[in-house]
């Protein structure tokens, strides 16, 4: 999935195969990511891509998610609990805003 600069040249590319998402997630993931980050800076896109890969890891670990319809409120609650259970680099609980960065 390429992002282009003001002259239409490829400026940044993300590999949709990298997060190992179920096949039904690839197109919606790409569309949402591209639409949401069209005007974001390259560094913001890179950080958000890391967060999306992290969420994909949770989806793979859960083993229950095969289609977008499987994304429920309960599942997102489980994701928060999963994040909360991750140790920080210091072994102490992670703060809500830093727990994603500490685990990546």
Q: How does this model look, in words?
A:
The protein is built from four helices and two strands; from the N terminus they run ββαααα. It is globular. Strand 1 and strand 2 form a beta hairpin. The model has no long low-confidence stretch (mean pLDDT 75). It is mainly α and 104 residues long. The protein has a two-stranded antiparallel sheet with strand order 1-2. It has helices spanning 23-36, 42-62, 73-85, 99-103, and strands at residues 2-4, 10-13. Helix content is 51%, strand content 7%.
What order do the helices and strands come in, and which of them pair?
Blueprint (H helix, E strand, L loop, with lengths): L1 E3 L5 E4 L9 H14 L5 H21 L10 H13 L13 H5 L1
Antiparallel strand pairs: 1-2
Question: Would you tell me the overall average pLDDT?
Answer: 75
Number of strands: 2
| Percent helix | 40-55%
Number of helices: 4
Assign the structural class, choosing from mainly alpha, mainly beta, alpha/beta, alpha+beta, or little secondary structure. mainly alpha
Can you list the strand order of the major beta sheet?
Answer: 1-2
Q: What is the N-to-C order of secondary-structure elements (H for helix, E for strand)?
A: EEHHHH
Please tell me how large the radius of gyration is: 15 Å
* Beta-strand residue percentage: 5-15%
Q: Could you give the distance between the termini?
A: 22 Å
Q: Sheet with the most strands?
A: 2 strands, antiparallel
> Could you name the ranges where pLDDT drops below 50 across 5 or more consecutive residues?
none
| Anisotropy-based shape | globular
């Amino acid at each position: 999935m390429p992002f282009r600069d003001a002259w239409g040249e490829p400026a940044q590319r993300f590999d949709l195969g990298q997060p190992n998402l179920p096949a039904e997630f690839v197109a919606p993931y790409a569309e949402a990511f591209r639409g949401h980050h069209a005007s974001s800076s390259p560094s913001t896109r890179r950080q958000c891509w890391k967060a999306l890969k992290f969420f994909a890891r949770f989806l793979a670990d859960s083993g229950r998610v095969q289609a977008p319809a499987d994304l429920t409120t309960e599942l997102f609650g489980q994701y928060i609990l999963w994040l909360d259970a991750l140790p920080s680099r210091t072994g102490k609980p992670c703060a809500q805003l830093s727990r994603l960065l500490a685990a990546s």
